[in-house]
């Protein structure tokens, strides 16, 4: 917001005084009293305006409602690229309250494995996972709604893992995994207060993700059940072998074509919250929020204004184009073109994975047993030596 000059114009005060005098003539009484009263009030108001806009220009903006019909009218009259409109996600939220949804980071450490280089894959001008005839059956029926929980870092991960398990095709129809389990039970992140994408991936690597019905989404700070989840008891968890990152638009595209959608960080601007349709890019009047949103890149397309990424968000189907958006590519401030994060699900069903992990466990048990025997032997020898 630009600084506003607030010089009280003398003619404005003069007009106010005249109007007040006129009114007072009608109602009688001392004409001078209201005159000073008006000036005093006027000056006081100026002080408030000065404090509001000049000293703390963001203050008023933060108190604004995100869903604001007047803003939509202004945007939709002037913005040729995208329209703005209401959505259920931010209905009733002020800009200030919306800030906490971006308490999200990619990783606590800069060390992440780069995905192995790929053989040459021909990159088409346009690709959309949600419309790919070979993969359509792997598209979620409805995009997720984060509710009143900062969970973009988990929802983007879970949704991408689901797509990829389905694309690998060993498990039949697409099914949902539980985001709530990861949100509530992963003590290395911050529950409904946000966290790191890579931590949500570590959780899947170590413990696996259980199915949605095992711990359905609530979109609030539900505590992790004390009793172990029945699905975990039954060893039904879908593990990741790990995850890796691809860098730059070309590698991001190759990864999507080869293995499926990727998770990506995006810098959020205020006008993104009420994006409705078209090609998004931040308007000059928009503010940048601190933090990140984590979302899923599902494809790209060519527009009159250049290339756009097609992304899936987690703000429900009433946001954007049924929960999806097209975001102008190559805009540094948005930061969408830099990295994609690729989870690598085992892709086999839980039982198959169990066979694998059972074998690992047995190997480990043998190893541990051998270590123990050796230690005892060493101790035995020591004892003998002492005795001798
Ligand atoms: C959303 O969550 C925040 C923080 O956990 C809480 O302060 C606020 O009251 C909640 N809002 C609603 C509408 O539930
Ligand atoms: C959410 O729950 C965790 C414990 O499960 C707690 O540490 C955290 O403070 C809670 N956050 C809020 C906003 O209630």
UniProtKB/TrEMBL annotation:
Region (Disordered): 1-27
Listed GO biological process terms: proteolysis
InterPro entries hit by this protein: Papain-like_cys_pep_sf, Peptidase_C1A, Peptidase_C1A_C
Keywords carried by this UniProt record: Membrane, Transmembrane, Transmembrane helix, Zymogen
MF (Gene Ontology): cysteine-type peptidase activity
Stretches assigned to the Peptidase C1A papain C-terminal domain: 123-349
Annotated transmembrane regions: 35-55
Highest rank taxon of the organism: Eukaryota
Family designation: Belongs to the peptidase C1 family.
UniProt protein name: Peptidase C1A papain C-terminal domain-containing protein
Lineage, uppermost ranks: Eukaryota, Sar, Alveolata, Ciliophora, Intramacronucleata
């Amino acid at each position: 917001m630009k600084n506003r000059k607030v010089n009280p114009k003398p003619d404005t005060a003069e007009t106010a005084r005249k109007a007040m005098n006129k009114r007072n003539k009608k109602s009688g009484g001392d004409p001078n009293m209201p005159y000073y009263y008006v000036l005093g009030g006027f000056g006081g108001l100026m002080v408030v305006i000065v404090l509001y806009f000049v000293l703390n220009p963001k203050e008023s903006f933060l108190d604004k409602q995100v869903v604001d019909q007047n803003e939509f009218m202004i945007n939709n009259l002037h913005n040729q690229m995208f329209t703005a409109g209401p959505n259920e996600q931010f209905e009733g939220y002020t800009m200030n309250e919306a800030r906490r949804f971006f308490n999200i980071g990619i990783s606590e450490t800069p060390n992440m494995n780069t995905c192995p280089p790929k053989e040459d894959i021909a990159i088409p001008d346009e690709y959309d996972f949600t419309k790919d005839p070979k993969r359509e059956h792997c598209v979620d029926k409805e995009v997720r709604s984060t509710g009143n929980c900062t969970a973009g870092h988990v929802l983007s991960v879970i949704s991408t893992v689901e797509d990829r398990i389905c694309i690998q095709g060993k498990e039949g129809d697409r099914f949902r995994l539980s985001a709530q389990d990861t949100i509530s039970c992963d003590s290395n992140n911050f529950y409904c207060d946000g966290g790191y994408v890579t931590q949500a991936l570590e959780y899947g690597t170590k413990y696996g993700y259980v199915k949605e019905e095992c711990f359905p989404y609530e979109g609030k700070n539900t505590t992790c059940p004390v009793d172990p989840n029945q699905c975990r008891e039954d060893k039904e968890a879908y593990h990741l072998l790990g995850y890796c990152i691809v860098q730059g638009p070309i590698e991001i595209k190759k990864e999507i074509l080869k293995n499926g959608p990727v998770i990506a960080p995006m810098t959020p601007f205020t006008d993104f919250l009420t994006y409705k349709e078209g090609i998004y890019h931040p308007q000059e009047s928009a503010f940048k929020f601190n933090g990140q949103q984590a979302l899923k890149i599902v494809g790209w397309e060519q527009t009159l204004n250049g290339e756009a990424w097609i992304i899936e968000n987690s703000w429900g189907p009433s946001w954007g184009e049924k929960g999806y958006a097209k975001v102008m590519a190559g805009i540094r401030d948005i930061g969408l073109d830099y990295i994609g994060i690729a989870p690598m699900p085992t892709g086999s069903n839980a039982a198959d994975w169990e066979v694998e992990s059972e074998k690992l466990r047995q190997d480990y048990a043998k190893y541990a047993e051998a270590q123990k025997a050796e230690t005892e032997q060493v101790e035995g020898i020591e004892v003998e030596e002492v005795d001798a």
